[in-house]
Specification:
The complex is a heterodimer.
Chain A (H helix, E strand, L loop, with lengths): L2 H29 L21 H8 L3 H32 L5 H10 L5 H15 L5 H25 L3 H9 L4 H30 L2 H6 L6 H10 L3 H23 L12
Chain B lengths: L2 H30 L16 E5 L5 H14 L5 E5 L2 H14 L6 E5 H5 L9 H6 L7 H6 L10 E6 L1 E6 L17 H14 L6 E2 L8 H14 L9 H15 L12 H6 L4 E5 L14 E4 L8 E4 L1 E6 L7 H11 L2 H11 L15 H15 L3 E4 L9 H17 L4 H19 L17
Parallel strand pairs in B: 1-2, 1-3, 6-7, 9-11
Antiparallel strand pairs in B: 3-10, 4-10, 5-7, 5-8
The chains are: A mainly alpha, B alpha/beta.
Chain lengths: 268, 448
């Protein structure tokens, strides 16, 4: 790369980082500013009037901690369940040719084609009838259903990149098919698995409507606060925004280390 | 990627990742073992009354109401669930229709409850025991939702008023009493204020996506000019009213189409005079009540049209704790709770509760304006639409459409009203319901 190209690449990186970073900075700043200072014009871009008051009022609302626990439970359970169901499906799609493979892949995406709002009443009714209504299990099941298509498609793409010969070699040296899958294929496919886990977690974390329909007393954090925040003063919207963004960011930061050589490129 | 490094990574990560994965698999069901953690304060299980409401959505209002509940409703444990209107409706529908009801008490606006008329039990017995509360007949009639029996017990009420920053008074034409404005005086004032303020408009209405500006046309402007709402929809007086609105809009801040509530633009000083729901205005004067006035809505040729906002408490068919819910209704209509709710959240008593003299500044301003409005000699009371049920939103949309086409798009007034009247009559002809105030009660309601 010439010097000039490198400069352009650097500038591009800076632009992308700013694109993601500036809104986060502004939300954090506003969430930790005093309420009066948000009515000033122009708004200061540096932390001049720090105050934790709105944030602590927000965090003290009923159900914030409970909602956080529920959201984490549902998010992690959804990741586990979606991987348990999605990995074998993705593997089958990558390794075997079978009749109707393409329509099957397309059909997978159809679960995302129906908006939940259309399904809200029947969905609520089914969960009431089977007795799962108002529990984290209900929301986990719904989120798993929503996440499966992306899990299957992402992992099948990544399994395609894992060499079949290594797997066969392992079996020649005495590994059972499952052991070969677990010890040879899965580790090499980890980046893709991490990526799909991230998608799944963030999807579950952000999903509001389904969670609001299926729960009443045991809500997820977004379902608990999002409607409230829309009608609250500006200061609380920023505080709530920060509280909703942070856990997802932490999860992404943790899962990111498995993202190295995702889709065949080396990131580190 | 060479095969070599691929295998190295494999070995470096496999144990750690398997451990992580294992921990995750083990932890998730453990966390989920109890089906989740309660987020509504009280455990929504045995014996507690789950109160679902679409009111008190702002964070602080909700916290203050929960405080009132825990302080004043001591007999029963109440789990307060605040939900959006859409979720409120679908939850109530799903639970009652499935016959597995978990909500014991619902609290919402008249219009939100009206569409679930058949899903609520009769509350004549509760209302009968509450004779000493002194509910107004207007409200208890509304609570029948068009049938012979009481479907909800009035909970609290509100209205819409004008908030005025005292800075704007410098442009008030001489000889005009700000507490007894007419619509023409308001227009002159706002025109003068805009000129005096360096051509920057000072008047705002909540014309944002979630704003309640259609209520201004339904309950204030049109009744004041025409004496009716539906029957007079395209009368010559209605044309005058909308022509007036066009002139007023020309003097209003164009950013109004972004305002969902006016207290924030007022507090920031973007606008100085604004019309909105009391609960969406009261935040503006909270910090400095002395800088503000709240005044009744203006009067028009027919009088001072104003709209009553009524919220009620109902019990769903098949509620698990119906008897306890009835006790909670009784507790929430006691004078103490009614006054507490007024002080904390600016919703007004529906009972004869004595309003104390020590109200917080902003609430006292609001209370003054609302009672002046109600007691004005030329007052014309508008009720929220009675019997529209699920079509309430559609009828509201027709008034919003009129505003958009007349004021924003500048289309001819009569033409717009004729077109929208056809739409309105399509709905009204399907429903075949009698008119409500201020339209004359009688045969089926439709635009003449």
């Amino acid at each position: 790369m010439s010097r000039r190209e490198r400069i352009w690449v650097q500038l591009g990186c800076i632009a992308v980082s700013l694109f993601m970073g500036v809104p986060l900075y502004l939300i954090t700043l506003a969430a930790l500013s005093s309420r009066e200072s948000l009515n000033e014009f122009p708004l200061p871009l540096l932390p001049t009037s720090l105050s934790g008051e709105t944030m602590s009022t927000f965090l003290k609302s009923t159900g914030i901690v409970g909602g956080l626990v529920n959201s984490l439970t549902i998010g992690l359970s959804t990741v586990v369940l979606a991987l348990l169901l999605g990995l074998p499906a993705g593997y089958a799609l990558a390794r075997y040719a079978f009749r109707g493979k393409d329509p099957y892949q397309l059909g997978l995406l159809l679960t995302r084609a129906l908006p939940i709002v259309v399904l809200s009443v029947p969905l609520g009714r089914i969960f009431l009838d089977v007795g799962l209504y108002d529990s984290t299990y209900a929301v986990t099941l719904l989120h798993t259903a929503l996440a499966l298509p992306t899990t299957v498609l992402i992992t099948s793409a990544i399994f395609l990149g894992v060499s079949r010969e290594q797997e066969e070699a392992a079996m020649i040296f005495g590994a059972s098919p499952f052991a070969a899958f677990a010890r040879i294929v899965v580790p090499q496919a980890l980046p893709g698995i991490a990526a799909s886990a991230m998608f799944t977690f963030v999807l579950s974390w952000n999903e509001v409507l389904g969670a609001s329909i299926l729960t009443l007393n045991r809500r997820t954090l977004p379902a608990q606060v999002l409607a409230t925040l829309a009608d609250s003063p500006l200061a609380f919207r920023f505080a709530g925004g920060l509280a909703l963004v942070l856990p997802a960011l932490i999860f992404i930061a943790v899962a990111r280390r498995y993202l190295l050589n995702m889709w065949g490129t080396t990131l580190r | 990627m060479t095969r070599r490094t691929g295998l190295d990574i494999t070995q470096g990560l496999s144990r750690r990742s398997l451990l992580t994965l294992g921990a995750g698999v083990a932890a998730a069901p453990l966390l989920g073992a109890c089906g989740g953690v309660s987020t509504s304060g009280a455990e929504g299980g045995e014996g507690s009354v789950t109160l679902m409401s679409n009111q008190f959505s702002p964070v602080e209002e909700r916290q203050r109401f929960e405080e009132i509940l825990s302080k004043r409703v001591t007999g029963e444990k109440v789990a307060f669930n605040q939900v959006e209107t859409g979720i409120f409706s679908s939850t109530l529908q799903t639970q009652v229709d499935a016959g597995k009801v978990q909500v014991s008490l619902v609290g919402a606006l008249h219009g939100d409850l009206a569409q679930h008329k058949d899903r609520l039990i009769d509350l004549d017995d509760v209302l009968g025991e509450l004779g000493d509360r002194g509910f107004a007949t207007d409200t208890t009639d509304l609570a029948k939702l068009g049938g012979p029996t009481t479907k909800y017990v009035p909970w609290m009420q509100a209205s819409y008023v004008l908030a005025v920053n005292k800075k704007a008074l410098q442009w008030l034409p001489s000889g005009v009493d700000v507490t007894k404005l007419t619509y023409d005086q308001l227009l002159d004032w706002m025109t003068a204020a805009r000129a005096g303020n360096g051509n920057k408009a000072v008047f705002g209405i909540p014309a944002g996506v979630k704003g309640l500006y259609h209520r201004f046309f339904q309950g204030f402007l049109l009744p004041s000019f025409t004496g009716g709402q539906i029957t007079t929809f395209r009368s010559p007086e209605a044309v005058t009213a909308w022509t007036y609105m066009k002139e007023l809009w020309a003097q209003a801040a164009t950013a109004s189409t972004n305002y969902d509530n006016l207290q924030e633009p007022l507090e920031r000083g973007e606008v100085l005079v604004g019309f909105d729901h009391v609960a969406r205005l009261v935040g503006a004067p909270t910090a400095k009540p002395d800088d503000w006035l709240m005044v009744p809505a203006p009067s028009g040729p027919k009088g001072l049209g104003y709209m009553l906002v009524l919220a009620g408490l109902g019990i769903p068919e098949g509620a698990p704790e119906a008897d306890k819910a009835k006790e909670v209704i009784k507790a929430l209509t006691t004078p103490e709770v009614q006054v507490d709710v007024l002080k904390a959240n600016s919703f007004f008593p529906v009972t004869n509760a004595q309003i104390p003299g020590d109200l917080p500044g902003a609430v006292a301003l609001a209370e003054g304006a609302v009672s002046k409005q109600r007691d004005a000699e030329n007052a014309i009371l508008s009720l929220p639409p009675v019997g529209l049920g699920a079509r309430d939103g559609e009828v509201g949309q027709i008034f919003k459409n009129c505003f958009k086409e007349i004021c924003l798009d500048g289309k001819p007034v009569q033409q717009v009203l004729d077109a929208q009247a056809t739409e309105l009559n399509k709905i009204m002809d399907e429903l075949k319901i009698p008119c409500w105030q201020p339209d004359p009660a009688g045969a089926t309601c439709r635009a003449a």
